[in-house]
Design goal:
Layout (H helix, E strand, L loop, with lengths): L7 H10 L2 E5 L5 H11 L2 E3 L4 H10 L2 E5 L5 H16 L4 E4 L7 H10 L6 E5 H7 L15 H15 L2 E5 L3 E4 L4 E4 L12 H13 L5 H21 L4 H14 L5
Helix pairs in contact: 2-8, 2-10, 3-4, 6-7, 8-9, 9-10
The structure holds adenosine-5'-triphosphate, 2-(4-methyl-thiazol-5-yl)-ethanol and magnesium ion.
Length: 256
């Protein structure tokens, strides 16, 4: 990662604004996602009942839709929340967990794409599948490299007008015309569940900030990568890595 990609200006903005981030995410990553947002200075709230989700997404600064543990009633609640956010101009972000690998969630994600997400963040297999260019990964895990999914990400961005982020060893952030590359991080980030899901929540929060959205989202990817690098250097395995990762997010920029 280039040093300037840490974008301390955007980080300062993020912390000062503390985006109220409505997360409709999967059962596995609720606490980790909330803790990542808190460590970066945002304000998470997990509101999932349809009536309340519809109410809250109009008030929150941004909405995350993550289909990792989708059910029919959750799908209905998500749809109401998205429509409510869109009606008042609030950004929403899609994390298409295991799309391609499973039918119900794939159809759901294809349907809600017409509701114009501000951004889509997934691993390579998910982005390839959502773009209609492959059959998906191994459950929630990718079987493709991010570089191999870049053309799919660019096509998906042009088709949906969303910023598309495909993550992996290298992250690519694209609007279909411009593409930013974010390097760094550590393979240990794939040994703790939810680093990608949490990144999607940070991307959602970032979408509520003013300025160039592509740049801000690339900055968010850079914060997570930098924290992953620092945490890996200080930990013995996945358990201590998760703790060190939150501490590293908290301390980001303290040296500069
Ligand atoms: N091999 C790697 N080297 C460095 N960083 C990585 C590597 N693989 C993933 N990452 C980083 O880990 C984070 C999660 O990306 P990943 O593509 O694994 O998401 P994901 O599969 O959706 O994760 P999850 O479903 O567990 O939330 C990103 O910040 C990404 O940059
Ligand atoms: C492991 C897992 N299963 C459903 S969602 C999820 C979190 C990673 O995406
Ligand atoms: Mg994922």
């Amino acid at each position: 990662m280039q040093p300037d990609l840490l974008n301390l200006h955007a980080l300062h903005h993020f912390r000062t604004r503390s985006p109220l981030t409505h997360c409709m995410t999967n059962d596995v990553v609720q606490t980790f996602t909330a803790n990542v947002l808190l460590a970066l200075g945002a304000s998470p709230a997990m509101v999932i009942e349809a009536e309340e989700a519809e109410q809250f997404s109009a008030v929150a600064d941004a909405l995350l839709i993550n289909v990792g543990t989708l059910t029919a009633s959750r799908a209905q609640a998500m749809r109401r929340a998205i429509e409510s956010a869109v009606a008042v101009g609030k950004p929403w972000v899609l994390d298409p967990v295991a799309v391609g690998a499973l039918g119900y969630r794939t159809r759901f994600c294809q349907q809600i794409l017409v509701l114009k997400p501000a951004a889509i963040r997934g691993n390579a297999s998910e982005i390839l599948a959502l773009a209609g260019m492959s059959a998906g990964g191994r459950g929630v895990d990718t079987t493709d490299t991010a570089a191999s999914a870049l053309p799919a990400a660019q096509a998906l961005a042009r088709q949906t007008k969303a910023i598309v982020v495909v993550t992996g060893e290298v992250d690519y952030v694209t609007d279909g015309l411009r593409t930013q590359t974010v390097t760094g991080g550590d393979p240990m980030m794939t040994r703790v569940v939810g680093t990608g899901c949490a990144l999607s929540a940070v991307v959602a929060a970032s979408c509520s900030l003013p300025g160039d959205r592509l740049e801000t989202i690339a900055a968010a990817c850079g914060w997570m990568k930098r924290a992953g690098t620092l945490a890996a250097a200080q930990s013995r395995g996945p358990g201590s890595f998760a703790t060190a990762f939150l501490d590293a997010l908290w301390e980001l920029g303290a040296q500069q």
